[in-house]
Amino acid sequence: MTTTKTFDHLGSVLFHYDLYPERMETFGNVRKVYTNHGVFALKQTAMDRGAGDWFIHVMRRLERIGFHYTVPIIPTKYGDYLVRRGDAAYYLMPWYENTERFTHPVSKEDVILEEIAKLHGLTEKNQEYSEDVIQQSFDTLKRRWELRRLEMERFADKIETHQYMSPFELTFLTHFHRMVQMAESAEEHLSSWVDICKEKKGFRSVLCHGRLNTSHVLFDQYGSGYFLNFERAVLDTPARDLAILFRHYFQTRPWDTSEGIHWLGTYERHFELFDEERHLLMSYLSFPESIFHSVDLYLNEKREQTQLQLVTHLERRILSLNRVHRLQETLFREEPEDQQWG
Amino acid sequence: MVELEQIKGAYGFSVGEWIVPGETFRTEKGVKTIKWWENHHTMNWHIQWREALDNKGICLTNRMIRTKDHEMSFLCTKGWLTLHDEVTSLFSYQGREEELASLIAGVINTGYTMDWRDAKGTHLSEEVIKHAVVDLPETVDPIVQSILKKTMDEAITRFKKAERLPVSSLEKCPIIDPLGSVKNGKEIFGQLFWSFLGQTPEVGYRSITFFLREYVSVYGKESTNRLLTALKEEESFDDAIMMRLLKEAVLPWEFIKTVEKLRYVKTKEESTRLLEEMYDTWEQSRALVTTISTWLDGKREKVAN
Questions:
Q1: pLDDT tens track for B48-96
Q2: Which residues in chain B have Cβ-Cβ distances shorter than 8 Å to A7?
Q3: Using the beta-carbon criterion (under 8 Å), do A84 and B57 form an inter-chain contact?
Q4: Interchain contact, A11 vs B189, CB within 8 Å
Q5: Fold designation for A108-339
Q6: Looking at this predicted complex, what is its ipTM?
Q7: A245, A283 contact by CB (below 8 A)
């Protein structure tokens, strides 16, 4: 965090709000602005006109449908939601202090899941069925995954020829078989998704936040969460938001199968997934992209991480992948229909 | 006079104090100025104009501040009004000609997108010049009348020279809110803030030439050359527009405007003063024509070399 007293650059932006900053603090792309009219958060972002228009549309829609778990965007005195300066766009919000201690016990993870489920429920829309669209989505993702798998197989082949493997290479190769299994499993779930969609001749979309993680939700003292940063919001399957959020949970805290099932159950109490959406979620979670990403980092010649950091990074992701495998086995265990997902 | 309480209520100000009654007042959100509109249609044109120009993201302008109900205008007992920021610091043009060039190019481009209805035309003919000095009122000093009749010949010569310039009459013309004076350029937090006056929309490039005429007289040839070069750098600003500006500078608009004003003078002294003003403007036009021509010649030489 830095404090600045040079306001000229942002002064002309804040002029749109009739705000004259007394002091500012910088938190990444957000400035905490102290004025005689209160404290505000000024976010700088790179959005072209199209993305900006969509972002405004999303914020207005959230207001219209009565979804109040958002940090509101304050319009300028001219009625705009974004102020443009060259390639950058700015928007202003009231400053919400993120509370860590609540008046009663609250699980932040659960609150986020409950509220995002409500958002998905409010914006649920059955899309006009098009087999071409479904097939195209399937083909594109499958092709991408196949390419990634091929890259990793080549990497594995290459390191197998090394007389002395590095700790990272050794770790990768030790778990490579499991990765291939998970990639195959992801493809199977993806095929199940496309088959059910074709059978049902339909699919639905919801408004996805697009970048769900705990840093994009601010909590008040009562444990209510307020979402911010809808810049990547998109109409898509609910599995998209859930996969992003689950991956974030997996990487930021220890978890086990029962917690994974609890999270899904918390979400589904407010917005139940269809079978095909569960398959899609599981395919997103199963594909070992995060491990492949570790390899990308390792192969990057300009990498900043040490070998030890990379191995730790890789180990964590392998651990997480194993947990996903167990979660998947539990969720898709053959059971009588009425006992599934209970 | 309009009730300040009514405006405060409409715009959600808690503090309001007249600085110039009926025009400017101080609020907790800075000094605001009122623009009264006699014609609702004209007001809407100017709302559209300033919003369209703002969309180009060039500079700040005195856009319409929204009411509490998110309206861009307010109908009070006295009529339609819009509310604007009062910015008083003047813009420093020297060394920042690119910013002004962007605004001028933006004004022209926005002007191409505006509609024609109610726009004031700016056509001049030899007949108009000849008839201008006929039947001037007796309040005009006879010496002034005599000088004007002699000046008319020079005005016609200027008109003919302008007509000979290679300007196609088929080119599209922008409809713009005239930039007015260089004093309308203000500065806030280091940014250019343009105060449009909300005049009758005008078709063509004449008002830009009037602006450049004042610019060259206040800031000199060097700064004007830098401005012209910066204009040429603007993607949409081509030689045809520069030639249009030159043509408008050669046309004897100051002659026509002075004669129009003379029809309403009440004293001979007033007519003499207007004549002196016309000579000043005439010289300014000459300076602009010389500057543009020299700049164009310089550009051609560079191309030839």
A1: 999 999 988 899 999 999 999 999 999 988 889 999 999 999 999 999 9
A2: 189
A3: yes
A4: yes
A5: Aminoglycoside 3'-phosphotransferase; Chain: A, domain 2 (3.90.1200)
A6: 0.84
A7: no
